[in-house]
Amino acid sequence: MYDHPFQHNEGEEILFKEGQVFKDIVTLRNAMRDYAIKGGYDITRVKNDSTRLTAKCSNTGCPWRFHASVLSDQVTFMVKTLHDEHTCIRPLRNENLNSNTKWIVEKLREKLRADPDMSYELMQHELMGKWGVEVPVWQLYRAKCKARDENMGMHCESFQKLKKYVHYLQTYNPGTVVKIQPAPRVNEDDPFVFQRIWIMFDAIKSGFENGCRPFIGLDGCHLKGPYGEIFLVAVILDGNRGVLPLAFSIVEAECGDSWTFFLENLYSCIGGGTDARPLTIMSDRQKV
């Protein structure tokens, strides 16, 4: 056992000392970054590889210097020499370059997992309160997006699971109709690329045919995602004037082709009405 194993509580100032050990180079690098941010120091890493980390204060004339190297197990690092004195003047407003997007995500990961819509003001308050650092809003935005991808999965990975989702959807909701239209392939060996999907649940279809008014409203809206998808929907009214989604679709753009895809599938499932029960359809009067 080592006499001085590295221990640190988040938000507390890091104190290095000779003989201190770190379980690996990643822990040491993270500690050095936290030390620079919390203290408001401008630290330069002179040597930074798999066997050593040597750093000094970037301000001219400041004597602070740090050196750690790997031990015989080739994993654990120990602080060998340390001149722990800063004579430089720290800025009143800490805008440290070490506080990058990855670092922000690490420090706010749990809070962003609990509150994915955490405001930028609250994120800034957390970072300032614990670490005394200010970061620009654009960096908070990137950190928020990165944390959301970690917690909820990347969009591209979700699209790869679409076929499995459809399988379970139809398995546990018998009668549900799903239509997937892939993007055109240039070569036969090209991978599947999602373009459009259309879904109608059997329970809602049955309710529309047996208990709802013969009225359908059509509309579309933009989705908040990296690919700019459009959400198309056909809504109906029940006896209590409640709105239900009869069918919905995710398409690449709101255009003639996407609406044709949507309405053709809608017609194939519910038809065009009868003389005894004619359908009334209302759109949002878009040009398409």
Taking pLDDT < 50 over at least 5 consecutive residues as the criterion, the unreliable ranges are none
Q: What order do the SSEs take from the amino end to the carboxyl end, as H and E?
A: EEHEEEEHHHHHEEHEEEHE
The backbone outline, from C-alpha atoms, is elongated
Number of helices: 8
Helix content: 25-40%
**Major beta sheet summary:** 6 strands, mixed
Strand content: 15-25%
* Mean pLDDT across every amino acid position: 85
Count of strand segments: 12
Using the CA coordinates, give the radius of gyration: 29 Å
Helix-strand makeup class: alpha+beta
- In whole angstroms, the N-to-C terminal distance is 73 Å
The side-by-side strand order for the widest beta sheet comes to: 1-2-6-5-4-3
Q: What's the quick description here?
A:
By secondary structure, the chain is an alpha+beta fold. The chain contains eight helices and twelve strands.
Model description:
The chain is an alpha+beta fold and 288 residues long. The model has no long low-confidence stretch (mean pLDDT 85). It has helices at residues 25-39, 101-114, 120-131, 137-152, 155-160, 162-172, 202-211, 256-270; strands spanning 4-5, 20-22, 43-48, 52-57, 65-70, 77-83, 177-182, 194-200, 215-222, 230-237, 243-251, 280-282. The chain contains 8 helices and 12 strands.
Q: Any key phrases for this structure?
A:
34% helix, six-stranded mixed sheet, alpha+beta, single chain, 12 strands, 288 residues, 8 helices, elongated
How do the helices and strands line up, and which of them pair or pack?
Layout: E1 4-5, E2 20-22, H1 25-39, E3 43-48, E4 52-57, E5 65-70, E6 77-83, H2 101-114, H3 120-131, H4 137-152, H5 155-160, H6 162-172, E7 177-182, E8 194-200, H7 202-211, E9 215-222, E10 230-237, E11 243-251, H8 256-270, E12 280-282
Parallel strand pairs: 1-2, 9-12
Antiparallel strand pairs: 2-6, 3-4, 4-5, 5-6, 7-8, 8-11, 9-10, 10-11
